[in-house]
Specification:
This protein has 382 residues and is α/β, with parallel strands linked by helices. It has a single domain, classed as TIM Barrel. The protein has 14 helices and eight strands. The strands form two sheets. It has a five-stranded parallel β-sheet with strand order 4-5-6-7-8. A three-stranded parallel β-sheet has the order 1-2-3. Helix 4 runs parallel beside helix 6.
Length: 382
């Protein structure tokens, strides 16, 4: 066999081997024709584990003492976790929690029980707020009744008023009409809070997705399927924008009362709006309760807000009383870790968050100094 024939045969052999190898590997550059039919994992069963190799810093104890201004632990409404007060105090010591504020304290006997069981036995560790008694909304003397109720609650030991999102979205009068946030029947109460030097912590609206249809385009689809009563989409509810307009009219009407717009101003998906709120209303503060997930996915803009308005942001959780939850919040605020789960992942949405790495002076204000300054405005009971 001559040299030319040998070379030709060798080339053909190598070509066949390469072709066979490629066929065995099945490497291609187009989607499989049956790909869609194989996407059968249920959404609830899809729990991807990130392959990202990123720094992870465990923060077991806050760098500075912390006041959590937004909890419902052992509250009068049954919203929060039930924790033995002695165990809660020990847990707080481990975490460097100086104080927790129990917002939904009710009024009258319910409030008194909470003060007797938590505030008095643990001085300086727990603070309790009072609330409206909406069952009296149709009483012609509602305004006066609520002022007297506030005065009684403060005399018992309450140090603020908590307003749930039921105002604007749930409370109706005898005609079936929703009570607006700026309803004039509430004016006397807002003014009385200002006179007493106690803050009004108000939750207006809810995440923006709760006002959208529950469909494949809703980023909080799973959460709303699990809690359909959290959906405020439809003509029977005011829009998110209308609720904010009601709220802002109320803020403007009562400049001598301090309001805390809960959940980071109640619209953390729209930080431009939150910043405008802070610019427009010097009597308004904000806190972080249950919005770590939304804020942590936009770390640069969020950090900018923290730095610019460091005197008006407070630490809040509104996510139970678990130590791991608090440690997740500490990690978010103190470190520059990237792409890690927020405390309740994936309950609110399928995304990860990024640490803010706040400087010490800002961190200390957010953790406790701003809350201390706020509660120091108390002028005493009547």
């Amino acid at each position: 066999m001559n040299e030319h024939i040998q070379t030709t045969l060798l080339c053909l052999t190598l070509l066949a081997a390469a072709t066979g190898s490629a066929q065995q590997a099945g490497i291609g550059y187009k989607p499989a024709a049956d790909a869609d039919s194989k996407k059968t994992i249920l959404l609830k069963d899809y729990q991807p584990e990130p392959a990202l190799h990123a720094a992870a810093h465990e923060i077991r104890r806050a760098k500075f003492p912390v006041i959590d201004v937004h909890t419902h632990t052992n509250d009068a409404r049954g919203i929060g976790d039930r924790v033995d007060p002695k165990e809660m105090a020990a847990r707080m010591d481990r975490l460097n929690l100086k104080m927790v504020v129990i917002l939904t304290g009710g009024w009258g006997d319910d409030l008194q029980k909470l003060i007797d069981s938590m505030v008095k036995p643990y001085p300086g560790r727990f603070m309790v707020f009072t609330q409206f008694d909406w069952s009296k909304i149709n009483d012609p003397n509602f305004s006066q009744l609520m002022v007297r109720q506030i005065d009684d609650s403060v005399a018992r030991g309450a140090r603020g008023l908590k307003v749930l999102k039921e105002l604007g979205l749930g409370v109706r009068d005898s005609t079936g009409k929703l009570i607006a946030i700026d309803d004039p029947r509430l004016d006397a109460t807002w003014e009385e809070c200002g006179r007493l030097g106690i803050p009004v912590f108000i939750h207006v609206a809810d995440p923006e997705a709760f006002f959208h249809p529950i469909d494949a385009h809703n980023e909080r689809y799973e959460e709303l399927i699990e809690h359909p009563d959290w959906s405020f989409y439809g003509s029977q509810f005011p829009s998110l924008q209308e609720l904010m307009a009601q709220r802002d009219r109320m803020f403007a009407k009562h400049p001598h009362t301090t309001f805390v717009a809960l959940h980071f101003g109640s619209w953390p998906e729209n930080l431009d709006f939150v910043e405008k709120t802070l610019q427009k209303f010097p009597n308004v503060m904000i806190e972080t309760g249950a919005r770590e997930g939304e804020l942590g996915r936009q770390p640069r803009r969020t950090r900018e807000i923290f730095l610019k308005y460091s005197d008006r942001i407070m630490f809040g959780t509104d996510e139970g009383a678990a130590e791991t939850m608090y440690q997740n919040y500490f990690r978010w605020l103190e470190t520059e870790d990237e792409y890690f789960p927020y405390a309740q992942y994936p309950a609110q949405g399928r995304w990860m968050i990024y640490g803010l790495g706040l400087p010490d002076d800002v961190l200390e204000k957010v953790y406790h100094r701003n809350a201390e300054a706020l509660f120091a405005r108390f002028k005493g009971a009547k």
